[in-house]
Design a protein that fits this description.
The chain is α+β, with helices and mostly antiparallel strands. A six-stranded antiparallel barrel has the order 1-2-7-6-3-8. It starts with 6 loop residues before the first strand and ends with a strand. The mean pLDDT is 90. The site of one zinc ion (ZN) has 6 residues, from helix 5. The site of one zinc ion has 6 residues, from helix 5.
């Protein structure tokens, strides 16, 4: 085998474990003098592939858990620990100066030996990219969200979370921030992100951030609503080791510093119910500015984190469906008495709405 070290990576990362963190920063590749001519016309390319040696890896497993928490064979992953300790990463070429290439997007540590460089010709792959992305999302619909969490890309996550919430506001920002933090802590303490439960203590904007980021929702029974009215939530694995994150009592005051105009608008539109077009536009705009500005605030001034033991409810039971003799609609067996549904019999039932959980009686 003829493999030659053509150069070395230089950056500020000597031991970083999270490749997404390294990718966010610039790296330099110092090419050895004897290979300098090989760089001729490389600046014509915006993207290049860097082939390098994982020289700090000294063992491998044929099956292991990936950074995203999936258990896979080594050739289905990009893990550094592999039989041939070779890495390939597509990077953006920012500058070529003599024998120094400055790139961004490389996930190699400082002093990594570089084995080869190849230009990326997007005319060969461009049409395939959308197709590949869709196939990947069909296999794991939360793949991009998990990547954004690992990258700590709060802005992208806030934009995506707002797609279910409908607007930007400080509440959903707090939910996104708290949930990303909890997901990272839980992941660091275990080998994956599966089988999580979220317990939210409020049913306002905050909870949509929690649902979107954790993937624990009303529909998949992994979201528990504890109706106690606090901007707080707990993320736990099924072993009951949970992380509770609550907003500090003075967080509101601190957040005002992120965009004071929002507080005036909030007072007019929400508290005084001024729903004039002009005020609504101002409210939305300042909500957006406050929401994104809040992302930059000091996490520890906004939130308190604690480790707690959580009593875990059983998996959601699956009940058979029985047809109501009165209305003819299929009804879950635990919500039917004498073959009559609660709506038809006028029996009390629970409802979750803007004011929490209530017991109601059908009015026919
Ligand atoms: Zn909101
Ligand atoms: Zn009925």
């Amino acid at each position: 085998m003829r493999i030659t070290e053509i150069g070395t990576v230089k950056n500020n990362f000597d031991s970083e474990k999270n490749p997404f963190e390294i990718k966010k920063h610039k790296s330099q590749i110092i090419i050895k003098d004897e290979f300098l001519e090989g760089l001729y016309r490389i600046e014509e390319y915006e993207f290049i592939d860097i082939v390098f040696e994982f020289n700090q890896s000294d063992s491998y497993e044929l099956k292991a858990t990936t950074l995203r928490g999936n258990y896979k064979g080594v050739f289905s992953t990009r893990k550094p620990d592999r039989p041939s300790s070779i890495g390939i990463t597509t990077v953006k070429l920012l500058e070529v100066k003599g024998n120094i290439l400055t790139v961004i997007g490389l996930d190699a540590l400082n002093n990594t030996p570089v084995l080869d460089i190849k230009p990326v010709d997007f005319s060969m792959v461009e049409n395939k990219l959308d197709h590949i992305r869709l196939e990947e999302l069909k296999n794991n619909p939360r793949r991009e969200i998990i990547n954004d969490i690992l990258r700590d890309d709060l802005e992208t996550l806030l934009i995506k979370a707002a797609s279910i919430h409908g607007h930007y506001c400080p509440g959903i920002t707090l939910g996104v921030m708290a949930a990303v933090k909890a997901m990272k802590i839980i992941r660091d303490n275990s080998d994956g992100l599966e089988d999580l439960l979220a317990i939210t203590e409020t049913n306002n904007c905050f909870s949509d951030g929690i649902q979107f980021i954790t993937g624990c929702t009303f529909g998949n029974n992994a979201l528990i609503f504890r109706d106690i009215g606090k901007t707080a939530f707990t993320l736990t694995r099924r072993d009951g080791n949970g992380i509770r994150i609550s907003t500090r009592a003075d967080a509101k005051k601190f957040m005002r510093s992120a965009h004071p105009a929002f507080s005036e608008s909030f007072q007019k539109v929400v508290k005084e119910q001024d729903h004039s077009k002009e005020e609504i536009i101002k409210f939305k705009e300042s909500g957006k500015i406050r929401a994104f500005a809040t992302l930059a605030l000091d996490f520890d001034k906004l939130f308190k984190i604690e480790e707690i033991d959580v009593e875990i409810p059983g998996y959601a039971p699956s009940h058979e469906s029985i047809v109501c003799k009165s209305c003819g609609e299929g009804t879950m067996s635990t919500r039917i008495t004498d073959s009559t549904c609660f709506s038809c019999s006028g029996k009390k039932y629970n409802q979750l709405d803007g004011d929490g959980i209530h017991q109601l009686i059908t009015k026919n």
